[in-house]
Design brief:
Elements (H helix, E strand, L loop, with lengths): L2 E3 L6 E3 L2 E3 L12 H13 L4 E5 L6 H10 L8 E6 L1 E3 L5 E4 L3 H15 L4 E6 L8 H14 L2 E7 L3 H8 L4 E7 L11 H8 L2 E5 L32 H19 L3 H11 L4 E5 L4 H8 L8 H10 L12 H4 L9
Parallel strand pairs: 3-4, 3-12, 4-5, 5-8, 8-9, 9-10, 10-11, 11-12
Antiparallel strand pairs: 1-2, 6-7
Length: 332
Amino acid sequence: MQMVSLGTSGPEVAAIGLGCMGMSGMYGPADRAESIATIHAAIEAGITLLDTGDFYGMGHNEMLIREALAGRPRDKLQLSVKFGALRDAAGGWSGYDGRPKAVRNFLAYSLQRLGVDHIDIYRPSRLDPDVPIEETIGAIADMVKAGYVRHIGLSEVGAETIRRAAAVHPISDLQIEYSLISRGIEDQILPTCRELGIGITAYGVLSRGLISGHWQKDAARSGDFRAMSPRFQEGNLEQNLALVEALRRVAADKGATVAQIAIAWVAAQGGDIVPLVGARRRDRLSEALGSQAVRLDAGDLAAIERAVPKDAAAGARYPEAQLVHMDSENRR
C-alpha cells in the first residue's frame, strides 16, 4: 500500500482510508461479524486510517472498532474521530456543540469507547454556528498539549473557516465529500487547503453507493439515510444512474469496474487527497482496493469528464434542511 503524508503537518497514512460509518446503521442494518472482518481485511491489506464519529450509532461505531482492533498494534494505525453532532433517544439530530467544555467531554467518552489513550486526528463534525471556530480548535489544541490528541482536522467547512482554524493550530486535513458528482470543493475550498498545506480526506467517493455501479432503483430501505437523499429520489435517481451507465462504458475500456474508476478519479486529482471508502463488506473492500491498479492518463480523464461532466448530477448531496447549516456550502 502506497503511503502519503496527510497535509504538511499530519501523519503518514495509506493512500486509501476506511470509512466505518455504514457499519453502524446509517445505511440500514449491518452485519457485525462482517463489519469486523472487513476492518481486519482492510488492515491486512495495508490500510492504516480508520474514520469514525462518536455519533455513528451513538457510540456503537467506536465500540465496534475497539472490538476489531483488540490485540492489534496501535502504533501502525491512525484513528480519525469526528465529534459534536447531537442526537436524541429516537436517533434524530439536534444540532452541534463546539464549546470547549463539550470538546473535552466528547473526547473523554471517545477515548473510553475506543479503549485508547489518544486519538490520532480529532475534528469537529460540522461548524457550530454559536461558537467561534477559534474556541473549538483552541480546546482541541489543549488536548494535543495534554497528549490525548495527535493532530487536528476539520470537516465540511468553508475556506474562511479553514483559514481561521489554521491560524490557531496546524490543521492536518479537511474531511469533505468529493466525488465525480460532488465537486463543489474545487472552486475555493481545495485551493485554500493547498495554499495552507492541508490534506483532504475525501468521503462519499462513490456518492453513498450511487455511482458504485451496484445501486439499483428502490434499494434504499427503512433507516437508510439514502431514502431521504435528493439524489436518490425519483426523477433525480434515473438521471444519475444514466451517468453511471456512461461511466460504466469508460470503465469497461480500462478493464475496471465503475467503482474502481470512480475511486481512481478522486485519487488522480492530487497526491494530497486520500479517498475514504465506506465498504462494510469484504467483497466491496476488495473491489475498492483494486482501484489502486487503475492508472488514468489524460485521455482517460477526458473520457470520464465527458461521461460525467461537472455539475451533471441531479439533486443536492444533502437535503436542503441540512445544506443550509453546512459551512462548506457557504460561497462567501
